[in-house]
Amino acid sequence: MPNPTPLPATPAKVAPAADRPLLGIALRLGSASCFAIMAVALKLSSERGVTAPEMILYRNGFGLPVLLAWVLLGPGLGALRTRRPLAHLTRSAIGLVSMVLTFEALILLPLAEATTITFAAPVFATILSVFVLSERVGRYRWAAVAMGFTGVLIVMQPGSDRLPLAGVLVAVAAAIGQAGVAITLRQIGKSEGIAAIVFWFTVATTVAGLLALPWFGQRHDATTWALLVAAGMIGICGQLMMTASLQHAPVAVVAPLDYLQILWATLFGWLVFAHAPVATTLLGAALVVAGGLLTAWREHYLRRTVIAARPDL
């Protein structure tokens, strides 16, 4: 399932490192694997009675010590300073809603379908960029939007009762929410570092989870707690590997590897939850991936064109 705490598309504050694309690719593959395993752990925990608000708390709370250790050993506490607390609050609020919807979709739908639909977020981000950022969208990106929407519709199968309607609607809402997060990150990422963005979001969602605990908290056995701890720690490791991948390889090289999560979700859904992949899901997923890759390629092409025209940028 998509990383619920995505990074800015062009992270302004990632310190440049030696150009080692193979290392960047390996880190991104590890990141995609971590997020897929995290999704499996969360879905297994949901079958044992864990609610979405609890997932928010434990996914972020158990990952917070790992994140803090990374900050202390890496960029240092100074990297957490911010001059835009309200921007972080807005980003955290949108991200919190998006994460709740993402985890709820994970509860209601098979793993492959939930992952595929929520991976349509770039489609909605393109549309939102027109209205929120006043960006111009050309025919290539509109073609990508059409491909992504078609893929989602094929997975949803309107009129069919194969998937619960509530789950489908929640997954679509989650994709829109993740698109909203991406738009917000384009703005805040211009002045704030990745360490600050990820850290303060993790803190905010942990606090929100604690506040919701009296209403949604349940008693759990040792196995369930193990799943929740694993989800938190594996999820934050995936986040850190995603961050590190951007230090060693260009975004255009590593970002498309995120779509391997759909493959992992399909495989794990089959092996762990006995949800055999169906032809419509595979076809829809292929279109969603194609639309996402076309969007990524076009943005990379346009960025290179701008830099070539303005070498001072």
Which descriptors apply to this entry?
EamA_dom, 313 residues, globular, Drug/metabolite transporter (DMT)-like permease, EmrE-like, 13 helices, mainly alpha
Would you write up a description of this structure?
The protein has 13 helices and no strands. The protein has helices at 21-46, 52-61, 64-73, 85-108, 111-118, 121-132, 139-156, 165-188, 194-216, 222-248, 251-254, 260-273, 279-309.
Question: What does the secondary structure layout of this molecule look like, with pairings?
Answer:
Blueprint: H1 21-46, H2 52-61, H3 64-73, H4 85-108, H5 111-118, H6 121-132, H7 139-156, H8 165-188, H9 194-216, H10 222-248, H11 251-254, H12 260-273, H13 279-309
Helix pairs in contact: 1-10, 1-12, 2-4, 2-9, 2-10, 3-9, 3-10, 4-5, 4-8, 4-9, 5-8, 5-12, 5-13, 6-7, 6-8, 7-13
Number of helices: 13
The termini sit apart by: 35 Å
- The helix-and-strand class reads mainly alpha
**Radius of gyration, in angstroms, nearest whole number:** 19 Å
Q: Report the portion of residues in β strands.
A: under 5%
Assign a percent range to the helix content: over 70%
- The average pLDDT value, as a whole number, equals 86
How many distinct folded domains? Answer: 1
Q: Helices and strands, in N-to-C order?
A: HHHHHHHHHHHHH
The major β-sheet equals:
none
- What overall geometry do the principal axes of the alpha carbons give? globular
Q: What is the multimeric organization of the chains shown? A: single chain
Tell me how many strands there are. Answer: 0
Uncertain runs: 7-12, 14-18
